[in-house]
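During the no-cost extension, the postdoctoral fellow (Dr. R.K.) reprocessed legacy sequence entries with the updated structure-token encoder. One reprocessed record is reproduced below for audit purposes.
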Amino acid sequence: MASQEQGNQTSVTEFILLGFGDLPGLQVPLFLLFLVIYLVTMAGNSLIVLLFVADRHLHTPMYFFLGNLSCLEICYSCTLLPRLLAGLLAGDRTISFTGCLTQYYFFSALVATECLLLSVMSYDRYLAICNPLHYAAQMSGRSCLQMAGGSWIGGFLACCISIVSISQLTFCGPNGIDHFFCDFIPLAKLSCNHPLLMDMLAFTACLIFALVPFLLTLASYVCIISTILRINSTTGRQKAFSTCSSHLIVVSIFYGALLIAYMFPTTDRLSHFKKVLSVSYTVLTPLVNPLIYALRNREVQEALCKTCRELRFPRL
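Re-encoded structure tokens follow.
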């Protein structure tokens, strides 16, 4: 849909999310797959938040940040998956210009917040393993609130720059977004303006909110691994590795997919590959985070068993 402006110029007022439209025979299987992922993601992350709130033994800095991460993943999934599911089920993939900007803003803000929050979590593990004597003083309740709040506020404020930049672009057709959600680079490619400035903006944003936190996280884990290797006890080394290895795996997958998607130029050959990569950090990461970070943790498992016993045998 477009409205007439000057001469033959038109201004696009709604977009079409092409998504997986090139796979017509897989629409129903994809719908069922993403529906299961959405339900499991929401259930797993909601369970973790409820456990952290209900069990006072989990009121520690590490679990406080994990609770924030689960809240973020819930918001993340609600921003993208319902619209994707509606498009797969009903076939209506149109989205208004305002709706597209709104979806992009919340998506980008939550991605930036997750990048910052993951680096804060790695700093928490660095202090716990490399500097345990000062851990309690440096990770006080006030410090945890400041770091978590700074991640949320920083992520949402920083994305105001990109949303203002996109809102100033002129879209005069075509209006088919080669993605399953409104993202910066596919949107900028549809504009009538020169794309170089938008490409530079996307590169700079990814550099600040993905590459820098990733390097800080990597530096933290270099120090952590160095400290673990100096532990004489084999049991102590295994316990420390089990605490951090899962975090490092998820962080590497998340940051790696993000950096490839936004820091490498988008060509026709890479467009489909980047679409697949985006599934990993928008759909799969919120799904596996509850399992890798929390549900494999012994303390969380004990809290879950305790809650189940109390629900099954309530006190009279």
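Residues 60 and 141 are 9 Å apart (CA to CA). The longest strand covers residues 14-17. The remaining legacy entries will be reprocessed before the final report is submitted.
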